[in-house]
Amino acid sequence: MADDPKLVAQIATLYAKGRSQRQVGEALEISQERVSRIMRRNAIPTRRHTTPARVLELVPPPAEPEPVAPALADDEDGGALDVARAAATGDRYTLLVALRDRLARTIADEDTPPRDLAALSRRLMELVKDIDAAKPERGEPEDHGGDVDEDAFDAAAI
Known about the structure:
With 158 residues, this protein is mainly α.
């Protein structure tokens, strides 16, 4: 059974204007199921396959990354410090930063199998926590409370 070309054109026009299949069906007084079948038979593309791209456009861009200490940011060639060279430095913080950057590149790579993304993302989040915990080890002062006057200590007061 061939579809009425006029009906097909109306469906295509209304759907292209942003109406849903249900709304197109209501406007033409036919069911959404019939609209869907006519669209399929006549190769009218649906928006279902483009939804993720449209959703991604609505997500705000990520915040600027936290600056890394200048000595750790890049190697002499201007590229990110690789994991092997970071490990060779013996500095835990440098190694964690290199691992974080490597994992981030792997996650962003389109060739990374989807089955691996969950584990890689989980490990990346663990590394970020480890990096945050390692920051005080790099000489950043920690605040442990107020000033203490050691001369005012009286052992007899205990």
